[in-house]
Amino acid sequence: MNFAHHFAPDISRIAVIVASLGRPDNLAMLLDQLSQQTLMPAQVILSVESDADLPPAPVLARQGFDISIVRGARGSSPQRNRGLDLVRGDIGVVAFFDDDLVPSRHALEGMVTFYAEHPEMNGASGTLLADGIRGPGITPDAALRMVADADAGFDGIDPAITSTPRALYGCNMCYRRAAISGLRFDEALPLYAWLEDLDFGGQLPQGTLAHTPAFYGVHCGEKRGRETSGLRLGYSQVCNPIYLLRKGTLPRRQGLRMPLRNIVRNHLGILRPEPWIDRRGRARGNRIALLDMLRGRLDPRRILDL
């Protein structure tokens, strides 16, 4: 269902899209954080596979904002696309939050301030106080404490641009609605859809995306619902950068360096694997992708057969 454009989009009206799978407790925590925003979201869209992914009904009912729920097949790209389909016509900014992000109370207000200060910019990623994705993860309680401490010392929104990357980090990115009209997340990147955020932002003109301290939070790096198969992720680590390089949404240097770095890390990591990473599975997936590349049949959708 697509909402008609009954109203002129307004940057003070923000839709938050959250694609979630198997993390109802993380989702509940995120909703409660959104309910404490200094600028309330105009619309929150939860894109899930089934009702089992949702928090209990009382959690949904107690929120003071419009919640839209869409259900369908799992996969970060199709779930985010279904969320985009539900964005109302009066929305001026679309934010994508991971379900394990803990945003500051001032996050949405920071987005509006950023776009008001920089009308030439199409998208932005905020500052992460901490990111658990590269380690064992950050507990929700620890993340809440970090954000609460930062909010306690809050002395105003800083809408500065610290860099202008080619693409944005998917856990806390937002776009001017008008800039992404017609853009979609690539559904040829299935399941966890590794690098789909880089592909999405890479479709916009260079120099119109920014990193900024205008909004901030903590990314827990929750492991549930993420790496269910090291084999599949290992394949994606080699295949997806090359796929995006050929597509033109990833710079040549990054598209070549990323697979090589992953291959080295995974094969060295077999010697001393981290408990939260299946290094052996990733390394095997890397090798299968290399063989497929030599055979001319490299395809991101191949992970569905692994």
UniProtKB/TrEMBL annotation:
* Entries under Pfam families matching the protein: Glycos_transf_2 (PF00535)
Q: Which domain of life is it from?
A: Bacteria
Residue span, Glycosyltransferase 2-like domain:
16-119
Q: Does the keyword Transferase apply?
A: yes
What Gene3D superfamilies has UniProt attached to this entry? Spore Coat Polysaccharide Biosynthesis Protein SpsA, Chain A
- Which of UniProt's keywords are assigned here? Transferase
GO MF term list: transferase activity
Return the InterPro entries for the record: Glyco_trans_2-like, Nucleotide-diphossugar_trans
Q: What is this protein called?
A: Glycosyltransferase, GT2 family
The taxonomic lineage of its organism, from the top, reads: Bacteria, Pseudomonadati, Pseudomonadota, Alphaproteobacteria, Rhodobacterales
